[in-house]
Design brief:
The protein is 21% helix and 33% strand.
Length: 1007
């Protein structure tokens, strides 16, 4: 027995372990090979893998070949194999063929990635021998249902919780093999009870997964399984998807199709009568009510792009009544919520995934804050939440990414009007409106699972939300659709919406206004969706924003809302604004299309770009040492960004497609903020700022690839480039694509650090350096169990391997002063002493903190309180790292600690002014005080002043880090050696009045 070249090492052991006989040996050579006779189950494996993974033939053709011939030439990628069948049946042939199928798949994936998915919906669906039982019988118990599995192949949907595949084999002993189609990788995954589990490629069954089950023997099997309809989100990748229907039972096919949206191209449904899969064109099934889809069925869905499909389960979400409400009112609230769900299902085929959000009905602020503390898996800080809720309490309700609030007093006591007749409550209207926002969040990937601590916004990704006029206009438009379904004339409703908006300001003025203009938004929504059957507004939210992948919920796609707008509605935003203004006789044409009126002061101007940038958007920043703002500006358009009087700003522009930032300097673009022009803002502001863009100066490519420990590419990982020494400031950011790769661009001859934000649960990690000569070097992390592995650049990419257990280790604790008073808003750090991996988090109002760490190991925990750095020790906080107590964080769950400051700790200060070489103030620079007694730091203010709080008495030196040069404060001026630096002693009094003057050219001072 032999296995050729690269297959020998990986699969030789598997084959030898099976101890197959001579007749069962598998030999793969360059031009010919042999496989022993196959059992029925082994034929199924061959059909599933060679036909569907290698693209060699359709399933029925493979099975026919096995029955008809003893020798067949099979093309796998660009290689030809001869497969012969001879000899007796044996158990060893199962294992041998599994290895052959896996080797064939690897060979095809390696040489022909474009072949993956060739037959997912075409050859497989056309297979004449495919037998699927989709008929279901309801059992006597409502919590379960029956699926009848026929002998041979069956297509079914997995609707319950994530479960090991072994549980399916235990429940149905007649199963020979189970397959699941991996739509992201365009290949089948399989498992079988007679195949060694180390050869399985399918291990876990997840909700929404479509399955192909092979039932042995000649009898049908009635499979009684639990009904779990609360989760309704199903992710669809571009191309063919085999997924479960977890929506309402006996749903009309047309309604199922509408719920997918306009990205749907084909829908495949099993027909029990004809014993085949019927393939439906999306346009052909619109409005179809005769064909029904049963709960638990499997569907072949073909879409143009990634879609988050919200299937309507028909089950009420978790409704939390916060405060004292009568039983009759509670019943009315639940009835109104159900009415709302039914309306959205019947009108749009959609329903929010209630496994991902809750509905709160509060009587007052305190009741809502308390209810969220009791019912949320990760409740917010109560003090912050109380302030937040109080600012919103004047409205009737609001929606967030994972919950919705409608005030209880919108329902009349007892649920009836004074006359005793049922009433349509104001609460139902607010539920209907806010529910629209929940759908917007979920369709665009903004929602989170309650089990996730964070919302997976994606580190460094710009604002994903469209303007309020579009979000609110859609919600009101939906209300008009409800009126239409209740018998109102649609043309009259549309005319009414238009009349309300006539003579108003141009729609562009509302784009970033904090005042919500419902009338303009509604009129615009009618213009974008002129028919109640129009899917455009929903499709917009399906396209905009992001979707997720992986346990860490990384971003996999991001579409700016302007790009999504043009893609869905077939017109640019500027063209639509002009059309809207003409249609509604906007009253102030002088405002232009993309400029917005703000209260002065502001910085305004124009982006003038070469024709090659037509239609592209640039991110225009205005920044100062105290913060800044930005706007997305289309090439050739104007901008107007609010600023503060008396503050100096730089103006910069960020190029599209992951490119770097350039700063404005006297009409030209420069690389460094140090060379940028300074705009001093008075009470009016700065106008006529022109940003001329002739070409993109970002031409140096930085290529990074991220894979999991199991070898799967990690999409949606945030990659950032920053100048050395500046932690993620003035950076360039991008996201890895489906293949795990990201390409970012910087100015030529730049030196940058490469950072990755591998999970929203953990902090960025530095993984590499780009040197001025274009060399990309890896940061050498220590090699240990669970450690991040960063490989040297291979070819054109820096490859980063991420452990599967990354950021799953918890550390809890609290930070208190010497008298036990909680210390809020301080930063707590935890890092591995060797290797530097770690995380950080801010303390809450009660001084408590919770952080997730990247790996198990010995951690040093410290905190920075207004710049004063102290370390955790069991006997109380200490100023020196050498005195810190190491904390072991392992696999056994969360570790808890208390960091308590000593009396007088962080109480003394060193103060002064930081000046440039010419005597002008140096603002926004981190000034560090370091010594044997500890270290601390503070940023210099606009006038160069700094005040550094010190962890303890002792001797310190002042230093700054600028342009790669460490500069110490000396008695007679700046120095580069710490031995020449001034020693500042702190005993019982502060030290002030220090003048720290920098050299004229810090970048060359160290040379």
């Amino acid at each position: 027995m032999s296995v050729l070249h690269g297959y020998a090492e990986r699969f030789g052991r598997h084959l030898s372990e099976t101890r197959v006989s001579h007749q069962d040996l598998v030999t793969i050579v360059d031009d010919a090979g042999k496989v022993s006779a196959l059992s029925e189950e082994t034929q199924t494996i061959l059909g599933g893998h060679l036909a569907n993974q290698a693209g060699a033939m359709a399933l029925n053709e493979t099975q026919t070949m096995i029955r008809r011939r003893t020798s067949q030439q099979v093309e796998v990628g660009s290689r030809m194999f001869f497969v012969e069948f001879s000899g007796p049946h044996s158990a060893g042939s199962h294992h041998a063929l599994a290895a052959l199928a896996t080797a064939a798949r690897l060979q095809t994936m390696r040489h022909h990635p474009s072949l993956i998915g060739l037959i997912v919906g075409l050859a497989f669906l056309a297979a004449a021998g495919l037998v699927v039982a989709a008929a279901e019988e309801q059992s006597g118990k409502p919590e379960t249902f029956i699926t009848r599995l026929q002998p041979g192949d069956n297509l079914v949907g997995w609707t319950t919780d994530a479960t090991p595949v072994e549980a399916l084999f235990e429940a149905i002993p007649q199963i020979g093999v189970v397959w699941a189609w991996d739509s992201s990788r365009r290949e089948w995954r399989f498992a079988g009870p007679s195949v060694p589990d180390h050869l399985w490629t399918l291990h876990t069954l997840t909700p929404g997964m479509g399955l192909r089950l092979r039932i042995a023997g000649g009898r049908a099997v009635d499979w009684q399984r639990p009904r779990h309809p609360a989760q309704g989100t199903v992710g669809l990748d571009a191309g063919w998807n085999l997924v479960a229907w977890m929506g309402r039972d006996a749903a009309p096919l047309g309604r199922v199709a509408r719920g997918v949206g306009s990205q749907l191209r084909h829908l495949g449904l099993w027909e029990p009568d004809s014993q085949k899969v019927s393939l439906h064109d999306s346009e052909a099934v619109v409005g179809s009510e005769s064909t029904q889809v049963r709960y638990g069925a499997a569907l072949w869905i073909h879409v143009n792009r990634t879609v988050k499909w919200l299937q309507p389960t028909g089950v009420l979400p978790e409704v939390i009544i916060a405060g004292s409400v009568s039983a009759d009112t509670t019943q009315q609230i639940r009835s109104d919520i159900k009415t709302t769900l039914d309306f959205y299902y019947e009108a749009f085929g959609l329903e929010a995934d209630f496994a991902r959000f809750q509905i709160y009905i509060p009587t007052d602020v305190e009741a809502l804050v308390k209810a969220k503390q009791e019912h949320m898996v990760f409740p917010p800080d109560p003090d912050s939440d109380r302030r937040f809720v109080s600012t919103l309490w004047g409205s009737s309700g609001w929606a967030s990414i994972d919950y919705m609030v409608v005030k209880a007093d919108l329902w009349p006591p007892g649920g009836t009007a004074p006359t005793g007749t049922p009433t349509v409550s104001a609460g139902r209207g607010v539920v209907e409106h806010e529910y629209a926002h929940v759908l917007q969040f979920q369709l665009s990937g903004q929602s989170r699972d309650p089990a996730e601590r964070f919302s997976s916004v994606g580190y460094g990704v710009p604002d994903l939300y469209p303007p309020l006029w579009l979000m609110e206009g859609m919600a009101v438009w939906i209300r008009y659709v409800h009126h239409f379904r209740n018998g109102y004339n649609w043309d009259e409703l549309r005319s009414t919406a238009r009349e309300y908006a006539l003579g108003g300001l141009p729609l562009a003025t509302a784009e970033r206004s904090t005042d919500i203009n419902y009338t303009q938004g509604t009129a615009a929504a009618f213009q974008l969706a002129p028919s109640p059957a129009d899917n455009g507004l929903f499709d917009f939210f399906r396209v905009v924003g992001k979707t997720h992948s992986g346990a860490a919920q990384q971003i996999t796609t991001f579409t700016p809302w302007r790009r999504a707008f043009a893609e869905v509605f077939g017109t640019t935003l500027g063209e639509f604004y002009e059309s809207y203004d003409r249609e509604h006789h906007a009253s102030d044409k002088s405002l232009g299309v993309h400029t917005h009126k703000h209260e002065p002061p502001f910085i305004s101007g124009m982006v003038v770009a070469s024709p090659s940038f037509t239609g592209q958007y640039f991110k225009v920043h205005v920044g100062s040492t105290s913060g800044g703002s930005f706007d997305w500006v289309e090439a050739g358009d104007g901008f107007e960004i609010p600023v503060f009087a008396g503050v100096s700003y730089n103006v910069s522009v960020e190029f599209p497609d992951g490119s770097c930032r350039a700063f404005l300097a006297d009409g030209e673009l420069v690389q460094s903020q140090r060379d940028a022009q300074v705009f001093d803002v008075d009470g009016v502001g700065v106008s006529n700022v022109q940003i001329s863009i002739l070409d993109n100066p970002c031409s140096e490519a930085v290529r990074v690839r991220t894979v999991s420990e199991s070898g799967i590419p990690m999409a949606g990982v945030s990659v950032r480039l920053s100048q050395p020494g500046s932690v993620l400031r003035n950076e360039t950011a991008g996201l890895t694509e489906r293949d795990g790769a990201a390409v970012l661009y910087v100015w030529p001859q730049s030196e940058v650090d490469v950072w990755m934000h591998l999970s929203d649960h953990c902090n960025p990690v530095k993984v590499g350096h780009l040197l001025a000569d274009g060399t990309l070097e890896a940061v050498h992390q220590r090699v240990a169990r669970g450690s991040l592995l960063v490989n040297e650049r291979r070819g054109q990419y820096l490859t980063v391997t991420v452990p599967d257990a990354w950021c799953t280790f918890a550390l809890d604790g609290e930070l208190v002063d010497a008298d036990g008073t909680a210390i809020a808003d301080a930063t707590v750090f935890a890092s591995v002493e060797q290797g530097g991996l770690g995380s950080y988090v801010e303390t809450k109002s009660n001084g408590k903190f919770h952080m997730l760490l990247p790996e198990a190991g010995e951690y040093i925990v410290s905190t920075r309180i207004h710049g004063c750095r102290v370390y955790y020790s069991r006997g109380g906080a200490v100023a020196s790292q050498s005195q810190a107590t190491h904390i072991r964080v392992g696999d056994s769950g969360s570790t808890g600690i208390t960091i308590q400051l000593a009396e007088g700790m962080c109480g003394h200060r060193i103060s002064g002014k930081l000046l440039n070489g010419d005597g002008s103030p140096r603002a926004g620079q981190w000034v560090q005080a370091a010594g044997t007694s500890g270290n601390a730091g503070a940023y210099s203010g606009s006038d160069g002043s700094f005040s550094v709080p010190l962890p303890s008495r002792g001797t310190y030196q002042l230093l700054v880090w600028i342009d790669g040069c460490t500069i110490f404060h000396g008695s007679r001026g700046p120095v580069i050696n710490s031995s020449s630096g001034r020693q500042i002693s702190i005993s019982n009094a502060d030290v002030s009045g220090i003048e720290f003057r920098l050299p004229m050219d810090p970048s060359t001072f160290c040379n």
